[in-house]
Amino acid sequence: MERLDYLDENGNKIGTVEREVGINTNLLLEAVQIWIINPDTKEVLMQRRSYSKKHDPGMIDISASGIIQSGETPMQGLIREGKEELGEKAFEKLIGKINEIYKFQIDFTKEGRKGKYLTHEYLAYSKQPLGEYEKQDEEVEELFFMDYEEVKKLIKNKDKNIRIPYNDDIEELLQRIDNHLLHYKQTIEEDER
Length: 193
Description:
Elements: E1 3-7, E2 13-18, H1 19-24, E3 28-38, E4 43-49, E5 60-61, E6 64-67, H2 74-86, H3 88-92, E7 99-107, E8 116-125, E9 140-147, H4 148-156, H5 168-192
Parallel strand pairs: 3-8
Antiparallel strand pairs: 1-2, 1-3, 3-4, 3-6, 4-5, 4-9, 7-8
């Protein structure tokens, strides 16, 4: 049985709970997401959640995400989820390139779904081809690349197929990713001079 820590509104641990109880009673749980972006093509590694998933089956989601288990740090939870969903070898190559870029609360109940999370958002640049990733069939239906601007458009248009809801915090997250991509491009241009 998977145990999760649940938090107060300030992010302090209150106790532990079984996973489904925490999700179904909308306790504030801690979660992680990683945006894996090819900096040259500006394509994001995306996934379609397995149709057998209990929550949000078949929805398009970011590269990898999940709930932090009791006793894990956010980075430990991210590495576990990344290896499970994307394959151990492929995710190992990313570990030194991962940066936490934002942390905010997201309440899926406002979208008519279940779950309330304090979410740690990470970004990693990678030029690995799709064939290097090994999806976990129980978690992921398919992996694919999508243009970053198209991902933003789906989110901002509140497309019913994308799991990421649009709100002020998501707008801030997207702005931070935009800034990282711009900084990366400027650094490359400076290095080429």
